[in-house]
Amino acid sequence: MRLLGIETSCDETAVAIVDDRKKVIAHFLASQVADHRPYGGVVPEIAARSHLDHLDQLVAQALDKAELSFSDLDGIAATAGPGLIGGVIVGVMTAKALASAHRKPFLAVNHLEGHALTVRLSNEVAFPYLLLLVSGGHCQLLIVQGVGSYTKLGTTLDDAAGECLDKVAKMLGVGFPGGPAIEAAARSGDACRFILPRPLKGREGCDFSFSGLKTAVRRAVERLPVGPLKERDANDLAAALQRAIIETIIERLGNAFVIAADYKPTAFVCAGGVAANTELRRALSLAAAEHNLPFMVPPPDLCTDNGVMIAWAGIERLKLGLTDPFNFKPKPRWPLDSLGV
Ligand code: KG4
Ligand code: ZN
Q1: What is the pTM of this model?
Q2: DSSP per residue over 39-81, as a string?
Q3: Which of 32, 109, 112, 165 maximizes ligand 1 atoms within 8 Å of its Cβ, making it the mutation to test the pocket?
Q4: CB 82 less than 6 A from any atom of ligand 1
């Protein structure tokens, strides 16, 4: 079984062809980082137009690299939400048109399910597993019980971890996109110089909150001498923020391990763009070992948005016969625990 996967929900136009033996046959990605950098954030209109400009060409490149034609594919999958709706519409309409013209099944993939299932391509993981999904728009703890079957243990009450990193990176002027820029700046910083809070520490449950951290960094900047932020100050604040986010996640995770025990998880998995962070990966691996669970995380380039995850989630769904009709409507919001398979 071979699937074409299309990802256009944010600022990467990505296309991949993957087979059911976990082989990534082709994988292409056009990053829009340079287009959005002047604005310090993703501009939805620019993103949608750029997907439109690049998608056809990437699909052609992927087939070319794979030395395949549409007749060799078993289906076309696209991210159908959640995400920036202009981009999602571009991907979904392209996938529907290709599927219709070539008489192939169409699969409307939930972007979060793409993140959640990628680990089953990169590693051997059986259901159920405990999942920390940390990206630009989401920070959730879930039990992944099967394809389309998710139980949410906790979520962020305000900003996602990635959103916090992105906003603070903009504030500190360390670069765009924010997560990798904070990680790089933190390497030369002193995480102990600035004291930042650990939101929700000691509270019951598995929810998160990150917007207070953003405010705490702003206050710390305001207390510094007036004038442009010095590189050392920016690096120290980046290091303090990275540590605060990681320690907060580890603290909330302690509760999740206890609650998750009832589900008898086979592993603890981390996914989503922020899971590309080396320090976070290290801390999560130690936490999992303390709770006697194997820790699994896809390689960094499969944590950030990509086409492979959409093709793979499509394969997992197609194996169960879960195809979608051509009148499927793209969804800007689409919680994982509402899939209800
Ligand atoms: O999953 P993703 O690529 O897109 C969404 O679905 O949101 O995640 C993007 C988020 C951004 O907030 C980005 O700054 C963050 O992941 N990110 C990182 C790293 N690479 C990407 N955060 C921390 N460290 C990284 N190395
Ligand atoms: Zn994502």
Answers
A1: 0.97
A2: GTS--HHHHHHHHHHHHHHHHHHHHHHHT--GGG-SEEEEEEE
A3: 165
A4: no
